[in-house]
Design a protein that fits this description.
The structure holds 2 protein chains of 2 kinds.
Chain A (H helix, E strand, L loop, with lengths): L3 E4 L2 E5 L4 E7 L7 E6 L6 E6 L5 E4 L2 E6 L4 E6 L8 E9 L2 E4 L3 E6 L1
Parallel strand pairs in A: 2-11
Antiparallel strand pairs in A: 1-3, 3-8, 4-5, 4-9, 6-7, 7-8, 9-10, 9-11
Chain B lengths: L3 E4 L2 E4 L4 E8 L5 E7 L6 E7 L2 E5 L6 E7 L2 E7 L7 E8 L8 E2 L3 E5 L1
Parallel strand pairs in B: 2-11
Antiparallel strand pairs in B: 1-3, 3-8, 4-5, 4-9, 5-6, 7-8, 9-10, 9-11
Classes of the chains: A mainly beta, B mainly beta.
Chain lengths: ~110, ~110
Amino acid sequence: QQQVKQSPQSLIVQKGGISIINCAYENTAFDYFPWYQQFPGKGPALLIAIRPDVSEKKEGRFTISFNKSAKQFSLHIMDSQPGDSATYFCAASTGNQFYFGTGTSLTVIP
Amino acid sequence: ETGVTQTPRHLVMGMTNKKSLKCEQHLGHNAMYWYKQSAKKPLELMFVYNFKEQTENNSVPSRFSPECPNSSHLFLHLHTLQPEDSALYLCASSQVLGTYEQYFGPGTRLTVT
């Protein structure tokens, strides 16, 4: 059973556009929702994270929107740049357990 | 060196071989993790260590054997692996165990022939 469902699997966006990646979860015990960015040949790196007591968190061009009642959260990348081309993973965790989505391959076209 | 380092970066081994993966963190963290990353699948948490003590083993086959001699080093000993074990193995650490930022190493690309 997949604990965190992520979509889309791949995404192509024009430079300057908005990239949106969505995730859904079932376990209401999750209390930490990070997004990771991974470039080829590198390990994932934390991009931004949110806890369920907040509905939105913004850091620069990256925003997490969190809908606790719908058990969904999403990553918005504003003014997408070619350097943002990478694989993005959402995750959810509680205690000792960490669950990741299957990843979204983002390509930003110049 | 800084951050989380992993060696080797690439490893090819036969099904009857025994090899070990090494992870070292230079961040002063107390929790360390092993993950398996396969194509088209979510990262799978394999083992969790907190202050050198194993706290989680997510039903990982016994052909994978972790070792954590201190809070800075983590090993994954491999023996009699199967071709389906071919994957990227990632090590991560965090300041403390729980819902805190994890720092990942670059991974070891393992191929089992």
